[in-house]
């Protein structure tokens, strides 16, 4: 009788253990499936967003090169410098990706790019309204070109960070190959130097 009781307990314990193990295996399988899906979704996000960031950065370079002339001549009427290149658009929230898969700081930086572009346009509008200086509009074009060079470099840097996070291969340029980011850095440095020289010249004249 006692032996039968022990056997019943062992059988019950074995049944419970079997159920628990079965549940654990199911949970592990579900976890592995979700992990695989999340990795695939993250890789997809990286491919899509990196492509858009790179195109945006290239568009920013095109604006940074725009000094209001065409073929060396003022692009507007009566010798006035006017914008030739239309600024690029980057609308991350229109992309069909799961943003929550990214770390908060990286996601925040990417999603803030349109806000930074809006701030730049607000600054340019202020210069155009309150420091109107035809026909060259030097201050306006310096601010526009520099602002887009900085914005393009930020987009390119975010693309690099996103590639690294999702495991995409880094972009490698051959020596002497055209370098978009170097062009933007050179534009920024050149404008900073000209602005600094202008401030120094004004200070000297006032003295």
How would you describe what is shown here?
With 207 residues, the chain is mostly helical. The protein has one domain. 70% of the residues lie in helices and 2% in strands. The protein contains five helices and two strands. It has helices spanning 2-64, 104-111, 113-130, 138-166, 180-206; strands at 69-70, 73-74. A two-stranded antiparallel sheet has the order 1-2. A hairpin with a 2-residue loop joins β1 and β2 (73-74). α4 (138-166) packs antiparallel against α5. The protein starts with a helix and ends with a helix.
What is this structure, in a nutshell?
This protein has 5 helices and 2 strands, in the order H-E-E-H-H-H-H. It has about 210 residues and is mostly helical. The chain has a two-stranded antiparallel ribbon with strand order 1-2.
Blueprint (SSEs and pairs):
Layout: H1 2-64, E1 69-70, E2 73-74, H2 104-111, H3 113-130, H4 138-166, H5 180-206
Transmembrane segments: 6-28
Keywords: Membrane, Transmembrane, Transmembrane helix
Region (Disordered): 175-207
Number of helices: 5
Strand content: under 5%
Quaternary status of these chains? single chain
Overall helicity: over 70%
Encode the helix/strand succession as letters.
HEEHHHH
Low-pLDDT parts are none
Shape: elongated
Mean pLDDT: 86
The structural domain count equals 1
Biggest sheet strand order reads: 1-2
Spatial gap, N to C terminus: 113 Å
Classify the secondary structure makeup into a structural class.
mainly alpha
Keywords: Membrane, Transmembrane, Transmembrane helix
